[in-house]
Specification:
By secondary structure, the protein is mainly alpha-helical. It has 10 helices and 2 strands, in the order αααααββααααα.
Amino acid sequence: MKLSAAIALAAVGGASAYSVNRSTLRSLGQKNVAATSQRNVRTNDIKMEDFGFLKGSGIGFEDAWSGADASDACISEVGLERALNQDGLRYKMNKTQQEAAECEPLFGLPGFTVNLPLIGETYLGPPRVDSVWEALGFTATSNNEARQNEKLKAIEKARGAKTGVLGGEGATLRSKWLEKYGYPRLVGSGGIFYADQLSSDKEPMGGFNMGKSGSIWPVPENIKEGQYGGVKGWGMKKKGTAVDGLPKVDA
């Protein structure tokens, strides 16, 4: 009888211990879930803000991220492409919308425009390019006529710069340096701009326009004529039209 009573008591104690542990585990699990859900609640979000201190200064938050010239062109690639296309410039070597409209779809395949959710009006179909090689990127270029004109304007701007570094003297400083030191000062006088020479240029660009030229690979005839004794080679110095903008002086 004593043995059976001891066994019964142990069984009751074990059941009680098991029920306590199970209850404790259940309550602990509930506490963990509650704590986890509480940690996932976001009460505050970090926002970019200058508190209006720089408003109207040209460098404030609203100045930088509002308006068609800022947010549309900076935040999205589509906006940037449209902004460049307005000036006739290409984005990522893609033809401008106006240039593409002048080309037929590749291989004459049909294309259509759909209005997709979140994206909006989207063209689905073959690209409008001159050849399959342009579609594959081999002959694609950003150096269209508009970009070439921008390079020519930048060359003239560097040659006739009115101000130099830190608002100092511009092109007029070069003749003074030439007289004093024997060479014109280009760096710091606004006279440095590199017009990259590309085979698709309609006329030679001349690089730094310092009267130096040369070829590593074969170039088109119109570019070749501008090198060496041509208008963008040492012939530039002969004519006195180098980037320094100073007249030729016979020694």
